[in-house]
Design a protein that fits this description.
With 222 residues, this protein is mainly beta. It folds into two domains: 32-78, no CATH class; 82-203, Immunoglobulin-like (Sandwich). It is built from three helices and seven strands. Strands 1, 2, 3, 4, 5, 6 and 7 form a seven-stranded mixed beta sheet that branches. Strand 4 and strand 5 (150-167) form a beta hairpin. The structure holds calcium ion (3 copies). Residues 55, 57, 59, 61, 63, 66, 73 line the site of one calcium ion.
């Protein structure tokens, strides 16, 4: 019986040791960000992401950036590769929507999204042009007003294409990579927004030694 009690006491000590995880002396454990991805360790544990891997789902974007911008840090198809636009000096993006028309007019709409990580202006400041470029089949549309991003009197199932152009020539590169979120949607004139697509315009940072730059993140983890 004495040995059994001793065994129970020792087992209890081990259990307490397991629960008491080591922490850095003097640091606030709730504000630690071990993998420097913008998400605090405690947030990562609650969200199910890996506190020791900055890109838990391997899609190229750090967990903290995905979380703040409304993408999933646990799904490598959120955002898709198509939604991640690698920007160059002049970048063109084609956005397509399929609409079912009964004589309505449809219009493309650029929707900038603010980001706490983009220290400069939002994506609208980089947008140099937006226009309608194609309707398929063409006979389903009576008139295309390209510069107004508008297709008039659409009848039947029709794919509408819009082209966005971004000009980065006036942008001063930063040491870290910026991700400018934006959305482009199609609305029915006289009605509401029917559908929108979300994108990230990714502007690579420039490091002095040519090393791959990290993404710009907020100074404090969330
Ligand atoms: Ca983290
Ligand atoms: Ca990711
Ligand atoms: Ca993801």
């Amino acid at each position: 019986m004495r040995y059994l009690l001793l065994l129970l006491v020792l087992w209890g000590c081990d259990s307490r040791t397991d629960r008491a995880m080591p922490s850095d002396a003097g640091a606030d454990p709730s504000r630690e960000d071990s993998d420097h991805d913008g998400l605090c360790d405690t947030t990562e544990v609650a969200a199910g992401t890996d506190p020791n891997a900055p890109d838990s789902d391997g899609d190229g974007l750090p967990d903290g950036l995905e979380q703040v911008l409304g993408f999933s840090a646990l799904d490598d198809s959120s955002p898709t590769a198509e939604q991640q636009i690698q920007a160059s000096t002049t970048t063109t993006v084609v956005v397509r929507f399929t609409v079912d028309g009964m004589g309505e007019t449809f219009q493309g709409v650029f929707l900038p999204v603010s980001s706490p990580f983009a220290s400069q202006d939002d994506a609208s400041s980089l947008l140099s042009g937006a226009r309608g470029v194609e309707a398929l089949p063409p006979d389903n549309v009576r008139n295309m007003l390209a510069d107004a991003q508008r297709f008039e009197t659409v009848t039947g199932t029709t794919r509408l294409s819009f082209e966005l152009t971004f000009n980065l020539s006036t942008l001063t590169p930063e040491a870290c990579t910026l991700a400018y979120p934006f959305a482009y949607g199609v609305s029915q004139v006289g009605g509401g927004l029917l559908e929108q697509r979300n994108y990230l315009l990714i502007v690579p940072g420039e490091t002095p030694n040519g090393a791959a730059p990290d993404y710009c993140l907020a100074a404090n983890c969330i």
